[in-house]
Design brief:
about 450 residues; alpha+beta; Immunoglobulin-like; 3 domains; 6-stranded mixed β-sheet; 5-stranded antiparallel β-sheet; 9 helices; 24 strands; about 30% strand; signal
Length: about 450
């Protein structure tokens, strides 16, 4: 009886095991043309695949060498526990599956704006956040073993097995080659992958509530499902080129938010629109009329902080025509590795000041007592071109403060931080030194962007 019971259990589990292991492999952009994944606005899957592929090197042996670390939470990667979708791991203690693509989370602000744009253009749309990319890490090295694309079912958080695919090294190499050889590589890739450009017509021609055109005509949503983007967006039968509008938060030279806008249509300027800055909690911090200026910058007195967002409002503030991407406190830069150690360094801002995070792998338990790190320190620089001895301020690494585990993505790393007195500004940089001298620089962050 016991053996028969085990046999029955095995028979019941066998179809599930076969389904999870038998995942189709896509080998070229031509293969992407024949699947549903990310092919229509406002789906973001193909943009996500292009973006992540840019951070992967593929050598002649088809080895996947990432410039990012998914277990560190780069770009919003987090641990993926739905093992029934993908093949079983060889060693669950030393490798894992990591997922990225959920834009509705603060950890995803570091994704490139072209990945998140359709999400912010279409509030309420059920397809704007369906797509995901999953990677499988290696148990013995920082390499990746596999890359997958998948999606949720509509109106569900469950994953769609029939629309799950493995991306071959050949396809990843092809996408990366496009990125290196074309200035507008995103558009070239979308064309090659068969993205339905016509489905994006709505973003080129935003509809007003009194317009005869409805978004349901293209199979997406009704006006009532997305009032923020469409109400009043067309004036006197002139159309708003929503997809071309640029709304950004940047940094001034003193740690304040600089608002940048471009390509605001005349049809909106003629009736009056306002530029507004909102914080992560949705509070309007300031508003100002654009008058007749279709592009420009405006320096505010608001400190740079995570989650700031620029919105284009109607003159009375009752309608939102467009949202820009939410501001990432690390300037959309992944941490840089500290040479020779299971640790990395990241420059970020809080209340307009330059701060630093140390990501310490949890297996590196004795880093504070390691004699080689006893005098290590982080220097903060107003300009990345300055010599090492020209720092603005510094702090010894052992005095960084351990942070609470805010997100479950940090299951492999402890995070230590320090808030300096340096006002964050374009060109700012943090550097990690092994000794009190300046000759052993183990890490330099990328300069803060203008």
């Amino acid at each position: 009886m016991e053996r028969k019971g085990l046999r029955c259990i095995f028979v019941l589990l066998l179809p599930l095991a076969l389904e999870s292991a038998d995942i189709p492999v896509l080998n070229s952009t031509k293969d992407l043309r024949n699947i549903e994944f990310g092919h229509r606005f406002p789906r973001h899957g193909l943009m996500l695949l292009h973006f992540v592929s840019g951070g992967l090197n593929v050598d002649n042996d088809d080895t996947l060498i990432p410039t990012f670390l998914p277990e560190r939470g780069d770009w919003g990667f987090h641990h993926f526990n739905n093992y029934e979708v993908f093949p079983q791991l060889q060693n669950q203690n030393r490798q894992g599956y990591y997922e990225v693509g959920n834009i509705n989370t603060p950890t995803a602000y570091s994704l490139d704006p072209y990945v998140t744009l359709s999400y912010y253009l279409t509030p309420g749309n059920l397809e704007r956040n369906m797509d995901r990319l999953v990677v499988r890490t290696s148990p013995n090295s920082p390499l990746l073993e596999a890359v997958y694309i998948t999606q949720h079912y509509r109106r569900s958080s469950e994953y769609d097995h029939k629309n799950t695919y493995q991306i071959s090294p050949a396809l990843l190499r092809e996408i990366r080659t496009l990125s290196q050889n074309w200035v507008n590589s995103e558009d070239v890739f979308l064309y090659a992958a068969g993205y339905d450009v016509d489905s994006r017509t709505f973003t080129w021609n935003c509809s007003a509530t009194d317009s005869t055109y409805t978004v349901e005509d293209t199979g997406r949503m009704t006006l009532n499902e997305s009032p923020a983007i469409m109400k009043g967006a067309v004036v006197n039968d002139h159309h708003t080129a929503c997809y071309a509008v640029v709304l950004q938060v940047k940094s001034t030279e003193s740690g304040y938010a600089r608002l940048r806008w471009a390509n605001v249509p005349d049809s909106l300027l003629d009736v009056g629109v306002m530029l507004a800055l909102f914080n992560k909690d949705g509070k309007n911090l300031l508003s100002r009329s654009l008058d007749t200026r279709s592009y420009g910058t405006y320096d505010t007195n608001q400190y740079l902080n995570h989650g700031l967002q620029v919105k284009l409002l109607s003159k009375d503030g009752s309608d939102v025509f467009m949202r820009g991407p939410k501001y990432d406190d690390a300037d959309r830069k992944v941490p840089v590795g500290i040479e020779g150690y299971d640790a990395s360094l990241q420059l970020y801002t809080k209340d307009g000041y330059g701060c630093a995070r140390l990501f310490i792998k949890k297996t590196f338990t004795d880093w504070k007592t390691d004699l080689r790190l006893k005098y290590s320190w982080v220097g903060f620089y107003t300009n990345h071109n300055y010599s090492s001895h020209c720092y603005y301020t510094y702090q010894y690494a052992i005095y960084f403060t351990k942070q609470d585990d805010t997100y479950d993505i940090y299951d492999k790393y402890d995070i230590y931080s320090y808030e300096s007195s340096l006002s964050i500004q374009p060109g700012a940089q943090a550097r990690f030194f092994l000794k009190e001298t300046y000759d052993q620089t183990l890490a330099k962050t990328k300069p803060w962007e203008w």
